[in-house]
Amino acid sequence: MTKKSSYTTDGKVVTLSSEKDVNLRLAEIIGKKFSDYRDEWDKANNMEIVTDFPLFLHLDMNQECNYKCPHCIIGTPAEVKEYYEGDYINFDSFKKIIDEGSEHNCPSMEPQGNNEPFLIKDLHKYIEYAHKKGFIDIMLNNNGSALTSKRSSQVLDSGLTRLRFSLDAHTPETYSKVRVGSIPLERVIRNIETFLELRAKGNYKLPLVGVSFCKMKQNEHELDDFINFWKNKVDMISVQTYVPPTPNIDKYKIYYSTDQLNSEPINEFKCVQPFQRVVIKNQSIAPCCVSFNKNLIIGQIGKKGAIHKAWNSEKMNNIRDLHKRGEFYLDKTCNDCVNLIYPNNQIPRN
Ligand SMILES: C[S@@+](CC[C@H](N)C(=O)[O-])C[C@H]1O[C@@H](n2cnc3c(N)ncnc32)[C@H](O)[C@@H]1O
Ligand code: SF4
Ligand code: SF4
Question: Which of 116, 227, 337, 348 could make an S-S bridge to 65, C-beta 3.0–4.6 Å?
Answer without folding.
Answer: 116
